[in-house]
Amino acid sequence: MWSVWLDYSGLRQLFPSIIRPKLRYGRPFKQIIPLPGSRWVRVENLQSGISDEDVTVALTGSLGVFDDALPHASKLFLGKQSVGVVTEIGSDVSLFHIGDRVALQSEARSSCASLGLSPACSACASGNPALCDHRALPWNGAGAGWSDSMIMHESQLFPVPEPLTNDQALLLEPAARAVRAVLLSGLEPGARALIIGGGLTGQLVAASIRALVPGVDITLASNYSHEKTAAAAYGVQQFIPETPNEMLAQGIELTNAQVWKRPGKQIFLGGFDRVFICRSAKKTFETGCRLVHSGGALAQIARPMNHQQKIDASLWRNEAQILHIYGPGSETLPDDISDSIGSRSSTLALAARHMMKNRLVTDGLISHKIAHTQFDQALRIASDINKFQTIHTALIFQNPAPAQP
Length: 405
Hints:
- The protein has 405 residues and is an alpha/beta fold.
- The protein has 2 domains: 3-171 and 367-396, Medium-chain alcohol dehydrogenases, catalytic domain (Quinone Oxidoreductase, Chain A, domain 1); 175-328, Rossmann fold.
- It has helices spanning 52-60, 65-68, 112-115, 122-125, 166-170, 172-185, 200-212, 225-232, 244-255, 284-290, 313-317, 335-341, 347-356, 375-383, 385-388; strands spanning 3-7, 22-26, 40-50, 75-77, 82-89, 101-104, 149-153, 157-159, 192-196, 217-221, 238-240, 258-262, 265-269, 272-277, 292-300, 321-324, 330-332, 344-346, 368-371, 393-396.
- Strands 3, 5, 6, 7, 8, 19 and 20 form a 7-stranded mixed sheet that branches. A 6-stranded parallel sheet has the order 11-10-9-14-15-16, with helices on both faces.
- Helix 9 (244-255) runs parallel beside helix 10 (284-290).
- Residues 400-405 have low confidence and may be disordered.
């Protein structure tokens, strides 16, 4: 197995916020790891995505305040976007057969199903295993998205429908999070939406709005011309800078918000009905809060940065709702959607359905495909989005694997 992981060996397990784990890639084990139980599956990965969150974790060695506090094994495998083929199954696996294409549903963490717990916690019982009460307990699998093969519990995998290409399947997990954000936000036709950040997540939110709620007026906050060009294909017509002060000023002007000033104080009345934070940066959350209209909602999809979560009084004053989208889940669907596929569905299944019907279009969003033998170059391309005009970078798995650094 070739893989990428954070090395938590030694004192790093005890003091991860002080002694940062090291990023390593290569062969994490000297021998083939057997399946740990009868409901586990071995998958040979074909492609893996490098998301903004992955880049931040890889370059900083930090998973954020919450995750840094959780216990970790000595090796934390990275990557939560992948498409692969099942090569081995346990004796009690019922959801998959050898040769099936599968996509990762979420990060490699424990859940009630993988731990064999019954009854399941409320999160797992409702179809949201990413929020499992027991996800901090040891996970028995190996590898993840950034691995040429991985061992996952069958509940952590999603069956890829035959019509979908590998590129579409690779984007199922981030697309499902975007779909979930749009559904939970309660967005309606005629509303005004602001998307902050035009990387893959921002593009998929725009695509999901177009697929699920036609007639929404979408504005994108981005500093990159290639992101604006890509977003225009989803009907985005207004663009403002992503820099906080300029975003605030132009957002106020665009929505005709009222501005009230006194010495040391500045209040805004008006703004966007929905704000989607798709890229974290300093003051992004605060600026997004100030641009939410009364009765509106702000959805945090990007992994929060340690310094950004300053809760602005404007949320309280405007009775605005905050939504945090951590992973795909199971949602109660609006009547116009539920009539055809049932009143409740996984957001992965909903994203796949709209991809197959060409309503959720993802063509061209994978801007770079790099062999995993050139992992360092792939990470540079994914992190320097201005130089390389990056929307999303995919690792393509092939032999031979690069040597351990």
